[in-house]
Structure formats: structure tokens, C-alpha cells
Amino acid sequence: MKIFDPHVHMTSRTTDDYEAMAAAGVAAIVEPAFWLGQPRTTVGSFVDYFNSLLGWERFRASQFGIQHFCTIGLNPKEANNPRLADEVLQMLPRFLGKDGVVAIGEIGFDDQTDAEQSVFTRQIALAAEFNLPILIHTPHRDKKQGTIRSIETVRAAGFPEERVLVDHNNEETLPIVLESRCWAGHTIYPNTKMDEHRMAALVQKYGADRIIVNSAADWGISDPLKVPKTIDVMRAHGIDDATIQRIVWDNPVAFFSQSGRLDLADSSARPAIDRSKKFENSSVLRGEQVR
Amino acid sequence: MLLSIVRARSGEPGGSWLDQQCATAGNDVDILCAAYTMASARVGRAPLALDASARETLAAAAPGLDAGRWTLDDAARAALLLAAAERLSRDAFATAATACFERGDAREQGSWLRAIALLPDPERFLSLAIDACRTNIIPLFESIACENPYPARFFPERNFNQMVLKSLFNSIALSRIVGRESRLNAELSRMAGDYAAERRAAGRTVPADIGLAMIETGSAGVRR
Q1: B169: chain A residues, CB-CB within 8 Å
Q2: Which of A113, A161, A201, B168 could form an S-S bond across to A181 if both were Cys, CB 3.0 to 4.6 Å?
Q3: Do B181 and B109 sit in the same domain of this protein?
Q4: Structural domain of residue B57, as residue ranges?
Q5: Between chain A and chain B, how many beta carbons pairs sit less than 8 Å apart?
Q6: Are residues B113 and B224 in the same domain?
Q7: pLDDT tens digits for A19-73?
Q8: Could you give all domains of chain A from N- to C-terminal order, each with its CATH number?
């Protein structure tokens, strides 16, 4: 089955991960801009990070036959540094019109501060201006309240809910999201957030409409094969392949296609992989011979 | 007092080095920051192991402060900041102290946060302390959240509540949060209750001490 992982931070992963993902059927991914674990202190760090998402990482993915798209945005944690947040928001528009940018994200709440609210709202306005959908990160702490507030913030801005993906849902937040017209993402993690069996149970309870799953693999304990592993568990729970395919391909494709920039032309026929290609003189081969 | 304790515990040449650095602390921000960094190498990282009278002296300077987990370099860095505070104007000290924090690695920042309640007019460093809670480096988070009277004294309710929730998320015993009982509030009780419900819905265990975050169960002096 062809798989779309709509949330995975490949910058933090190795080429072994790319190989394993491709072998498991992952054909396309979205890498949202996010927090790097260490706070950034200057706007230039963001410029370089966004450029690497659009450049080196897309190239690296292509070397393993995976199509790489990204979302650009200022994450809620770093929204709390007011001087930096202003500089990043002023710089963001230069990235928002670029090819392969399929949403603004991850944006939303972390501590649910006033500064986060303000940066969230300003980025919703940018999404409207650039005709992009929005990927919303829901907070770890006080999650239910944070989810409700996120949807209220979207509504208050008059932004169309069908262009919003609310991510990292659990049993408590999914019914809230499904009551809106937003899409509902689920992050399948080894220890936290959601796991494969709970996800299968949610699909059996709520169906596949607007339901999306992702690995959100990053620098923490996480697993870039969680979407294919969830497929196996959903099958074991008796969920049919047509339903599964909606969740792991059709839904994320439909959501991000609203950007008008999700060009999947190549994905049916996997690109012939030529790892001798170079990106600005760097190859993923590091001096190895092409096998 | 910190200076003499460090001198007694770390011996020479670390003791003389710290004396010299404290005697000129603040004359030059770059030199102060360099000394702040070098403290680990110069005086070592052994536990500070204060005796009862020294603990009392510290607690008198900053009620609720528990230096039981401090190390020699923590104490040396606190001595450097306090020496700079005596020698500099109010504003110049704020600039120098902030530079020590911003240029510091996680261990230096941990030392800084452990000593924050000892600094003159510590409320002016509130935004720095709140921002420090956003770290994912748990020992750094603990240096502001645990055995430290600062959050209970100065954090607004929303930030205090987030710090308590983050402690629960990271399996940090809530009994380590100084002044917790005095800051319990209805919103924190609701957040802790929602967290317990979310954990149960996910088929997971609920932290055994979550009741310490709730008004009904957390103010009876229950300790682990």
C-alpha cells in the first residue's frame, strides 16, 4: 500500500530511516517546521533551517525515492521570545510562496500564553494571504483546553475550518475536532501521544472521514515506521484496506492538495534513484561508490 | 559565606582562583562570563554537602531555598554573581547576570537558576525564569522548578500551573516544588483532573502524586 506520512521531522533522522521507510511503502512525506530541541536565538537560524527543509532535505529524500514537502511556520514554543518572534514573522513571507510549501505549520499553543495567541493569529492571517492550509500542533499539557482554544482561534479569524489540520489528537480531543470541520491528525508514538491499537479502536469507533495518522518522528523517542506499523495493526483489527488507504494516503493528499502545491505527479512511478546526483556539491554517498 | 565554603571544600588552586575572580567580578562582562564558565573546571563538580548551619544561613537569605543538590561549581557561580552584584550598579548587574545566563551551557544555566532567589531584586529576572521552563533538558528544568522558592514567589498563576503540569509529565515528584501548597488554585486542579482523565482514556497509569496538584487533596501536607 502506498503511504503518505504527513508529519515527520526527517532533519533529525538518518539515511537508514529513509531506506526503511521507502522499503515499507512510504512514497511521500510532509516535514513541518518545528522546534529543534534547543532554542534558537537569532532569526538567521530560522532562515537556514527553512532553506534546509526546502533544499537539502528534499534532495536527500529524493535519493531514496520519497517525495518531500514541508510546512513553514514559527512554532508556539519559540513564539514566546517576542523580539525573535517579530523578526521571524517578518521574514516568513519570503518562504511562504515557494514550491513544495504545502501549509503553514506547526503553529498553535504550547503554554497557551498571550504571546502564543498573538503569533498564532498572525500566522493564520499569513495563511489566508498566501492561500495555504494550516497545520496545528496541540499542546502536551492541558491538551483538551488547548485544542478547544485552537479551534476557537481559527473561527475567530474567520479561517475556513476545512483547510485546518489539528494534530496530535487523543481519545479526549478527537470528538472535539470531528465536531468542527477541521481534519484530525494522530501521532503514533512508542510511549506517548497515541499508539497503534488505540488508533485502530478510534477508527472502528469514528470511521475514516478526515482522519489522518503520522509518525511525527523527530529527535526524541519516536519511530519513522509507525504509519506502516499502524496499517498492520488496523488490518489485524479487521479494518478493510479501502478504509486504511483513505487514512494513510487519500486523506492527507486531499488535505495538502488544498495548497495547490502538492505535485505528486512522480509518485505513482517511483523516480529512478540516482544517488550519484549532488546537491550543491554534497552527495548522500559521502565518498562511497554507487552500488 | 559561599566563597569560604567553596574554598574549604575545593582547596587550592580553585579557592584562590575564585577569590581573585570575585574581587574583580563585574569589571568586564566577558571576563565574568568566562569565569562563570570555567567554575566547573576550577573548583570541581563535587556535591556541596552543606552542614546544618550553612543551610540555615542560605535559607535565611532566600526562604525555602534548599541547596541539598547543589555542587561546588553551583556555589562558585553563585558567589561570582553575588560579588558582581555588590560591585555593580543595579542595571549593570542585570546586564552582566543576564549575559552569564544567555552565554551559558545547560550546566551553567542550571547553576544560574538554582541561585536566582539569592540575587538582588530577583523579580526582574521573571521572564528569563519562565522561559527556562520551556527547556526539554530535564535537569535544567528541575533547577528552576525544584527545591527553588522562586516560582512560587514570583510566577503568575498560568506559568506556575504549566510548570506543575510539566513536572507531572516528566515524573518529577511534586513534593520537590517549593511552596506548592500556597499556590494551589482551581485552574490547576482542573488541569490535573483533565490530565488524569486523558491518561485513563489512553489506558495509562496516573502519577501517584497527582493529588498534590489539586486543592482538595494537595493542601493537607501530604508528602511522599
Answers
A1: 140-141
A2: A161
A3: no
A4: 2-128
A5: 49
A6: no
A7: 999 999 999 999 999 999 999 999 999 999 999 999 889 999 999 999 999 999 9
A8: 3-257 (3.20.20.140)
